[in-house]
Amino acid sequence: MNPMRAVIVDDELPARERLRRLLAEIETVDVVGEADSGQRAVELVETLSPDLVLLDIQMPGLNGFEVIEALQDPPPVIFVTAYDEFAIRAFDVNALDYLLKPYSRERLAQAVGRAQELCGEDRDMGASFGPLLETLASEGRYVDRLAVRDGERIRVLDVEQVDWIDVADERVLVHVGDEAYQVRRTLTELEKRLDPARFFRTHRSALVNLSKISEVIPWFKGSHKLRLSSGAELDLSRAQARALRKLLEW
Fold first, then answer.
1. Does 95 have pLDDT greater than 60?
2. Is the pLDDT of residue 40 over 60?
3. Which end of the chain is less crowded, N or C, counting CB atoms within 10 A of the terminal residue's CB?
């Protein structure tokens, strides 16, 4: 059997070096790349299509969870964490593996063995991560950043920058000023992961950043339009107008 092709992701060089050294002792693993940031991790995973990612959680830019959010087809992942107790509970609930720093050779080998079993089962890892992300959302761990497509590159946006998100030509687009960026998530998935105190569903195909609304304009037959601070206008359905009226108390 060919060795698993692995990518290491950690913003700290000593941590990457130690992990690489320990993995070199496991004959069934071949490290094919390293990334020092979440943004670079997304690009590297999509370029190399590894069999396994060893992914740190606490990183600047995109953290480990946000890397998973950004990947269309995530491979098996061994999460690495130093102190995130809630993450450990979430992994336990959703049967995903993790390494708690400092970890031993034996614990690493056990985690790799589990990842090999997952690969052998040919499981849909995207579906497997769904319960974890839903658990994070249920505990109020909403995303603060979004990884979007900017040509061939990955761009990281703070959610406060986003004006609205909609679906156009079967693509989900994140709008920031005059720019629109594609994101590899459905609108429903994004709605679950964005803080409902910040983002509101205006109709079936759009979410708006509540802080960007500058005016609510009455329209035909009980519908409304929303004018944003950027000057853009969005349709607001009658049903959602009632919900927004309660939310904003207008």
1. no
2. yes
3. N
